[in-house]
Amino acid sequence: MRSITIGESTFSCQPDETVLETLLRGNVQVPNGCRQGLCQACLMRSLDTPPPVSAQNGLKDTLQKQNYFLSCVCHPEQDMTVALPNQQGASVEAGVIKKRLLTPDIVQLVLAYQSPFNFFAGQFVNLKRPDGLTRSYSIANIPRHENILEFHIRRLPNGQFSSWVYDELEVGAQLTISEAQGSCHYLPGRAEQPLMLVGTGSGLAPLYGIIADALAQDHSGPIHLFHGSRDLNGLYFVDEMRELAAKFDNFHYTPCISGEGIESNHVQGRAHDIALSSTETLSGWRVFLCGHPEMVNQTKKMAFMKGASMADIYADAFHVMQEHK
Amino acid sequence: MSESQETTSQTLYEKLGGEAAVNAAVDIFYRKVLADYRINRFFDNSDMEKQIAKQKAFLTMAFGGPNNYSGTDMRTAHARLVKMGLNASHFDAVMEHLGATLTELNVPQELIAQAAAIAESTRNDVLGK
Question: Is residue B11 part of a domain?
Answer without folding.
Answer: no
